[in-house]
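In response to the reviewer comment on reproducibility (Comment 2.3), we provide here a single inverse folding case reported in full, input and output, so that an independent group could reproduce the run without further information from us. The structure tokens appear first.
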């Protein structure tokens, strides 16, 4: 079966076209938002790696005109109603400055659907995935309101347990989920952190590794340059 045939056979791909979403990934966010009560009316949302914009579409539909959605990507994003977009690298000081200006304070929710360009080398792709997830976490730490939430894509493999343990030092509740719209052959999962613990405050409980990663160590990550 060709790539185009596979896409045509994908019910989420067809649904996205029918319902006007820019990508099938919209249904991943919708499922997570419904399950974990994310994207409330009036929320401020920062969407990292937002192109082509399907998550920002969902976010604005949920937060409404009283909310705010800021989308960041290295590539330009075609204009979306209610969404303010920034073309840039979130690790750069100038991009961070633009984000601060548009947030008008702090975010209620930070989203990251960023994935590395595939090299076909599993070890390399896994390492890049965890690097991007850590970058997104560091961004969330600097932009979230106390009690806020964070959703990030990761690949299951080397470093996943350590990342989960680190998440548990910053959020009161941490869950991992594979939405139904995820392809069967994919190694991706999404980690959802809720109840952000403000920097400088101690967690209300000790961080612990996931049960399937009993030897995972908490790895303290350096903050990104800037902020």
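Designed residues, in position order:
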């Amino acid at each position: 079966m060709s790539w185009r045939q596979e896409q045509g056979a994908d019910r989420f791909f067809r649904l996205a076209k029918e319902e006007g979403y820019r990508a099938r990934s919209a249904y991943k966010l919708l499922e997570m938002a419904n399950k974990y009560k994310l994207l409330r009316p009036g929320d401020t949302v920062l969407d990292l790696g937002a192109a082509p914009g399907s998550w920002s579409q969902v976010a604005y539909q949920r937060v409404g005109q009283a909310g705010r959605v800021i989308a960041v990507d290295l590539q330009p994003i075609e204009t979306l109603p209610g969404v303010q977009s920034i073309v840039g690298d979130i690790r750069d000081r100038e991009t961070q400055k633009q984000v601060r200006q548009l947030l008008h304070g702090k975010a209620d929710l930070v989203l990251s659907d960023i994935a590395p360009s595939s090299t076909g080398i599993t070890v390399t792709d896994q390492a890049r995935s965890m690097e991007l997830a850590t970058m997104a976490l560091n961004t969330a730490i600097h932009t979230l309101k106390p009690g806020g939430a964070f959703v990030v894509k990761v690949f299951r493999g080397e470093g996943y347990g350590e990342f989960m343990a680190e998440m548990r030092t910053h959020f009161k509740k941490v869950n991992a989920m594979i939405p139904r719209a995820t392809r069967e052959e994919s190694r991706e999962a999404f980690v959802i952190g809720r109840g952000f613990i403000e920097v400088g405050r101690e967690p209300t409980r000790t961080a612990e590794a996931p049960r399937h990663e009993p030897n995972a160590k908490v790895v303290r990550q350096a903050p990104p340059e800037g902020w």
